């Protein structure tokens, strides 16, 4: 449908300017009834978007600061691949103390989402030990030796409890901080997996011990290599994963 779907949020709605940072989606600031919001247009399925928008509402209801979906005039949380969300002020983390606050916020997300069902069409790192595809992951496109390295890294996480992981919290542009709160934005990569994948933060802000940090860092690098394969970033991340 494209951006014409924006009309389903009412008559007084318009795009303002394109926002940078997104890769898979077209993201713009929009104005609805005089207030600033964010519109994200992509190609996710309705089931995928339903999972994400319900997650946002649940986290907001639990007291976390996340973008909250703004319903269309007939009450839907998305339409034609378009989601419109509240705009959140703030800046990126800059100090070790800031990143420790981010780690604490992520751990609260993980606590609140234990036992949540997997995002439709997605696979966890444990699933990918036995299957090759899931949303943006296609292990069949990677060299067999690279797949073996990734699976060896993920196997070290197997059997651990799962929850929702943000999926890209190390990108400072996905965080909006003020003195009062930490907001996590851009949940497009969120899915159910082992929480350690979210906790490989700058300066080891999550306070993982050496062994736990090594396991998490290897698994995280393998995940990013598989999701992005085969661009330059994916190759660099794969280089961080030890050979089998």
TrEMBL record:
Residues 16-205 form the Aminoglycoside phosphotransferase domain. SUPFAM superfamilies: Protein kinase-like (PK-like). It comes from the Bacteria. This is Phosphotransferase. It comes from Paractinoplanes ovalisporus.
